[in-house]
Every structure is written in C-alpha cells, then in structure tokens.
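Continued from yesterday's entry.
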Amino acid sequence: MEIIRKRRAGEIAYGLFLLSHPAPVLLHVIGVTVFTLLAVWPRPMWGVILLVIGAHSAMQISIAMINDYCDRHLDTASKPKKPIPRGLVSPREALIAGLIMTIVMLLLLLPLPRLALLISLAYLALGQGYNLGLKSTPFSGIVFALAIPLIPLYAFAGAGHTLPVLFWLVPVGVLLGVTLNLANSLPDIEEDAAAGAKTLAVVLGVERSFLVCRFFIVAGALLMTILTAARIVPALPLIIVPILIFTSLSVGSMFLFFGPEKPVPTRKVHFYVAALTCMVLAGGWLIGVLV
C-alpha cells in the first residue's frame, strides 16, 4: 500500500468519499428517507426528518469506513483500486473517520426519542460485528436478517410514531435481509472462498445463492400477500397489486439477465436490482397499510 507518499487534499477527500461506499449507502439513505416520510405523514416535521436521516446516514458511513479498515489486508491483494490500497487514505485515517461518523450519529440522535437511539445502537452493533469477523461466517446472513427490519422501526421511532403493524415488517424484513446479504456477497464470492472466508454465500455456492435470493424475495411477497388477504395487516389493494406485479417482473428479470452463468461484473447490477426490489416491496407495503 502506498500510504507514505505525499497526497493532495483533493486525493484525501476523494478517498474518504470512496471509503463511504456511496452507492450502497445511498440505497440505505433512500430507504430510511421513505420510511421517515411515511412516519411523519401528513404533518412533516422537517427538523425531525433531517435528524433521523442524518443520524442513519452517519451510521451507515461509519460502518462502511470501518469495513474498509478491517478488510485492508485482503483488499491489498484482491481489490487494489480501493482507497486504502491505493494510498488515498491511510488505515489510521479510515479508522478515525469511521469513529468520527459514529460520534456524529450519536450527537444527531440525542434530540430524538430514546427508542430511536436504542434501535440505532442495535443496528450499529450488528454492522460493526459484521465488519469485525461475522462477515466471514455463515452468520453474516443472520446479521442482515436482523438489521434490515430495524430500519423502518428506527424511522418510525425517530418520528415518535410507533405502530403495532410495524412489527409485521420484521418477518418480511428477515427474508429480505438474507436476500441482500447474499446479493451483496455474490460479486466477491470467489475471492472470499479463496481467502478462506465461510460466508453464507460461500457455503451455499454461486448457483444456490442466486436461487435463495429469488426464493426469499418471492417468500417475502407471498407472506405480505397472505397477511393482506387475511386482513391481519389490512392494506390498500390499489397499492399492493402493482407492487406485487413489479416484484414478479423484477424476479423474472433476475432469472433472465443474472445468474451463475453470466459474467461476474453483472452480479453488482444484480445486487442493485435485488436491493431496489426489496425496498419497493417493503416500502410499498407500508404505504399500502398506512394510506
């Protein structure tokens, strides 16, 4: 790693930007924004909205930066274009930046209800536990399964608007969380296996990981349909039906355009398709319930 050469301020700033994993973090920000706007509707409290979104964004950036710090040795061999191996950011700077973002998160959470703080701390513990070793074990899927349902719970808790119906999002979120873990792991599955990591995707293998991704999205949609049809969680059909159609088309596109036989670079696009589908499925269902 070239971390001793003299760097320009612009290089360091660019390195920190890359260190924040902007694309995946943006997906989380969009998700928490949707849930927060739903939580405050129809009386938006913009100060609260900004605090809820800002705190979650800071936490996601912290997790991303600590992730690169923990993976710096592996990235040197397998991902030399990442900011630490490239020498844009030193390991010490990455660690400090990640800790600073954690402090920012805590400061933004102080004015919010304590339940939002507790949920955020639980999410942070899961995220950093993933970075510190769980990502290399089959428990990585469990981390995602537990963390993803916390996002809507956090958004509503931050807005001071908790509803019993939100807890029905947990089983759906668990299914979608495992989906996101596998989709996120697929682009690196060969490198992880070569490094001796036993992630859930490595244990399942490429073919089964693709299949489980699709199966769990369908299972989440089916569970949502059953809860709606049985009136356990009443929802507006005019919203639910288009969401189910979108999910069906999305899963169909996954079978057509993505898979173990396709080029490895397409797996990153597959992750974004899976993430968007999960976001629309969970967010759309909640809209249908609340409208």
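--- second protein ---
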Amino acid sequence: MLGAKCLMAALVMTSQIAAAQEPSTRDLARINWMEFREWVPSKVQTVLLPLGTLEPHGVTANGADIIAPVAIASAIAPRLNAFIAPVVPYGITGGMDAYPGAFTIPEAAYRPYVRAVIEGLAAQGFRNVILLNGHGGPQTAVLNDVAQAVGRERGVRTLVINWWSLATDVTIATFGYDGGHAAENETAFMQAIDPALVQRDRYTGPDMVTPNAAPGTYSAYPAPSSITLYKAGEGYPTFDEAKAREYFARVNDKVASLVEEIIRKWNLAGVQP
C-alpha cells in the first residue's frame, strides 16, 4: 500500500512539474501580462503570426484564408515552443473582391499596419517572428518586403510561409495531383478543421471551377470562378474525409518542420540581424 501511495505521489509531482514547464495558454490574447513576462523572452523566443483575408472559397468559408493559418498555428505552437499572436484577418484580396462578403485593404493601409504588428512583436522580446500567411497574390509580396525590413531594422529573425505553396508536394502525395484556390486541397484542409465549414451540397460540378490563366494569356476581373485550378483538369473537390484529415496532419508537419529547420540554421550560423 505504501509503495502504491509513493508511486501516486511521484506521478502527481511529475504532472505538476510538466505543467509548470508549459504556459497556461499559448494564445497572446488570453495570457496574463505577468505570465507573459515570465515566459518571454527567457523561455519562449518564437511567435506565430497568422494573416489572411476574406474572399470567396467555393463551397467553404469566406474566411478560409484566416481559419487555415490560425489552425496551423494552434496545431504546431507546442511543438515549436511558440506563442500565437492574434490573427490579422483583413488583407489584399485582389481579383475576387467583387464577390459577396469579400474585403480588400489598400496596400497603403495594409503595409504600415502589418509592419506595426511585426514591430510590436519584436519590441515584446520575440526573437523569431514567423508569419503564417493564408492568402497569396500581392499580399505575399508585401509581407516578404515588410518582414525583411522589420527584421533588418529591429534585429529580429523573420520567416514568411505561404502554407499552400509550401505543401505542394504534400498535396500531390495525398491526392495524386495538384490543387488550386478553394479546390481539392484547400477545401480538404477546411473540412479537416471543421466539416460544417464545407457545404458540399452547394457544389454543382465543373461549371463552378476555372483553371488559372497561363501567364500572358488573359486577365479577367472579377475572377470568373471562386474555385480555380493550378492545372486544368486537376484538383476538383471530392470531399474525401479520410484524405482531408491526412492532408491536415501532413501540412502541419511540413510547416512545423520548415520552422524548426530555419531556426536551427539561424542558430547554427549564429546570425542575428
């Protein structure tokens, strides 16, 4: 009996020690300021900043570009020993901003705002600022430019990740072909996050889909479809639940592995702007 009690006490103590080595939350919007001071930068030097926009996504949510990077951040933050900054939800939408529910922020407003957010994270003591971008187009170029400028001026290390592009090999390995905007890959990712976000009964087939125009061929505004394909004939949504879950897990691993590798290389090289 005494041995059992000792074992139980040891397990409780181990659990308490493990709990003490984890913050109460990794969400910067939910953490207390005193706890933040205890963890940053002495114990946590990395922050994940999700960014997105609101635009049509076929039969899934207008906020897919917001929901996806937030889900990635939540999934990988413990592995990376990182905190998660509140998402920047509005972005530079581009050719789909004519659709109902879409928003676009002029670059003249977006650029300084994002810059201020990154500068604020640097001022709080984070050494590694990881931008998890959920939206492409001109927004990507702005983020690359701003992140590099802040890194140089504030002495922090920045990384911009466009998850859907990074995961091209994962898309092909999972589905057997490439995807597109609101196509098989992105719809599957949303389906894995929350099946209720995908209204598959609204999908009426190929007429809802348009392949991306080849460079130099044509440009249409507004975009003729909210579902686009990187390659003609590849990436139509199939709503396969098992593949959706597999894809979600593999994408998160791919993103986390890249962050780990970049930070490892930064540390190995001893570089700090």
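The domain at 26-263 is CATH 3.40.50.10310 (Rossmann fold). The chain has one domain: 26-263. Will compare against the first tomorrow.
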